[in-house]
Amino acid sequence: MMIGTATSVSVSAWEASASQALKAIARNEKMKSQVQRGEGLYPLLSSAARRFVVGETREEAISEASELLLKGYGVSLECIRENVRDVRDCISAKDEFLAIIRTVGQANLQSTVSLDLSYMGMNMDPQLTYEHLLELAQEAERYGITIMISAEESTKIDQIINIYKRIGEQYANVGITLQAHLHRTLHDYLDIQAYPGKIRIVKGAYQEAADVALPRSEELNERYLDIVEMVAASGRQISIATHDEAIIEKVVKKGYLQQPNVEIEMLYGVRPERLKELKDEGYRTKVYVLYGVEWYLYVCHRLAEHPPNIYKAIEDMANFYAETEKESLY
Predict the structure, then answer these.
(1) Among candidates 74, 134, 75, 136, which has minimal Cα distance to 102?
(2) Of the given ranges (99-103, 122-126, 131-135, 237-241), which has the lowest mean pLDDT?
(3) Fewer CB near the terminus (10 Å): N or C of the chain?
(4) CATH classification at residue 176
(5) Diameter of the chain by CA atoms?
(6) Are residues 168 and 142 in the same domain?
(7) Cβ–Cβ contacts within 10 Å for residue 233, how many?
């Protein structure tokens, strides 16, 4: 018994340490640059990234989304963008999301489109970001597509909410992501209650100070469930975005997933077998599908979120050299 307890503590400590290291690596521009320039390293790590990112092109993403829709899943599509430093990059990002909306809409695929407002220019010009999102919302409304504003660091939340509220005065097809770990989130939820749009609830993946956010803990799980209960009870459309089995068991037990306004959402490549079980049980499920060449930061965060995924990454890299064919995760 003592051995088992010690092992559990050791594994927990290793996972926490690995998580912190991966988050630091994610923000290391020098390491990222070395990965991208390495003729042998880039394709090797790219093979591991393919567990979490469907490919580098829009066509690959649409193809995978079509397959998932045929299997009965909902889909949310996003192009991964990083380090948007000038207006031209922001316009390019906006144009890519316009292309996603039009491609999905013209193909009559019932998909959500997710995006970070920082990629639309928020860090440089919030008004430009508002104008970009307004253009996207108008185009998405034509096709009955929902746009979801993704989560970002706590320092950006005020701007994100202000832009969301301005858009919400005109369009009901734009939703927002709330991070349960932030101490401010309950206030933010009350602040946006009068505005339309789906709400996605996540724990929060960014490193934040203790006076800003809760660490991963039972207290965080309880806060997450409290927020889910409030939003679900309001009748508003809600996406419960989690891979945490303790939370999944509780939302199933409480009957939230039986409500017509509730879905459960997981990232592509993370616990696909569990999401399939939930789909087969008749619950509304959604896969968050990402694509793009800027996968480095995203993959580091996915490994940090659940360090045992490192073992799968190593397996994927080994399979790359064995030239094994990728099988469907779903």
Answers:
(1) 136
(2) 122-126
(3) N
(4) 3.20.20.220
(5) 62
(6) yes
(7) 12
In a shared domain, residues 27 and 74: no
Which candidate, 206, 197, 246, 257, places its Cα nearest to that of 224? Answer: 246
First-residue to last-residue Cα distance in the chain? 37
Same domain, 93 and 121: yes
Q: Is residue 122 domain-resident?
A: yes
- What are the tens digits of pLDDT across the range 163-217? 999 999 999 999 999 999 999 999 999 999 999 999 999 999 888 999 999 998 9
Same domain, 34 and 73: no
**What is the number of domains present in the chain?**
2
Looking at residue 80, what is its pLDDT? 87
Please give the single-letter amino acid code of residue 101. I
Examine residue 299 and state whether it is found in any structural domain, yes or no. Answer: no
Q: Higher pLDDT residue, 43 or 78?
A: 78
More reliable by pLDDT, 329 or 264: 264
In whole angstroms, what is the distance from residue 173 CA to residue 101 CA?
13
* H or E element that contains 109: none
The amino acid sitting at 82 is E
Average pLDDT, the chain: 84
Residue 305: CA count within 13 A, CB half-sphere:
20
Domain span at 83: 55-294
Residue 31 and residue 146 in one domain = no
H helices of the chain, in order, are 2-26, 29-37, 41-49, 58-70, 87-106, 126-143, 157-168, 185-192, 218-234, 245-253, 272-280, 296-305, 309-322
Residues present in the chain in total: 330
Cα 185 to Cα 169: distance, rounded to the nearest angstrom: 21
The per-residue DSSP string of 227-285 comes to HHHHHHHHT--EEEE---HHHHHHHHHTTGGGSTTEEEEEETTSSHHHHHHHHHTT--E
Verify that 226 and 121 share a domain, yes or no: yes
Same domain as 242, residue 193: yes
